[in-house]
Fold this protein.
Amino acid sequence: MSALTSFEANGTAVVIGASGGLGHALTEAIAKSGRFAEIFALSRSQTAFNEPRVRTGEIDVLSEASITAALADIASPRLVIVATGILHSEENGPEKSWRHMDLSWMEETMRINAFGPALVAKHVLPKMPRQGKSSFAAISARVGSIGDNRLGGWYSYRASKAALNMFLKSLSVEFARTHKEGCILGLHPGTVDTALSGPFQKGVPDGKLFTPEFSAKALLSVVDTQDAEASGSTFAWDGTPIPF
C-alpha cells in the first residue's frame, strides 16, 4: 500500500464520491496509510467507515451551494480526489452509434463527469496549502483520450472525460501560479469491479478486472510519485501517461 510519504504528515485529505466502490476503497486506503490525520469522505449518500480518522459528509457536485457547505469546515487539504462519475443509467448507456445520441443524456453525462469535478476544483483549490506538496486528482478514463480513440462510439462518455482532462489541464496552469509544488492529475483506474462497470465486464480480459482495493492502491501510488512537473497530465493506474 502506498505510504503517501510525498505529502507532509498529519495533514487533511478529502475524497468526494466516497460512497462509490472506488471512492470507498480510496478513502480506506488513505486512512490506512497513516499519513493523514483527518480524511473527509463526502458523497451524495452517507456511507460508513471503520477508520476513526474518517469524517463523513454529504455533497452534490452539481450544486455550488452544496459544495461550499461541504467544504466549509475543511481547512488546508493536501490531497483531494474526486471519484464521482456516470457511465450508464437505467434508461441510458454508452452509445454504440451516432444514431443513439440523445441530448438530455449527453448533457447529464457532461455535467456529472466534467462540470462537477471542475466546480469542486473552483471551491477547493483556494483552500489547499501554498507551501509543500498538494494534489488534486479526478477519476478520468482512457477512453477520454482523443489520440487513443480508434474504436469510436461511447460518444457522451468519451467527450465528457476529454472535457474533464481539459479542465484539469487548464486548472493546472492557474494552480501553478500560486502553488509551486501543487499537482493536478487525471487518473484512469482501469476497469474496476463496481456498479459503474457492471454491465460492461463480460468482455474484460482475464486479470484486467480490478478490485476497488487494487485500483485504489495503484492510483494512490501514482498520486504519491507524481509532482508539479506532471501537473495537468492524465495517468493510468500503472503510472503510464495517457495522451490527450
Remarks:
- The chain has one domain: 11-242.
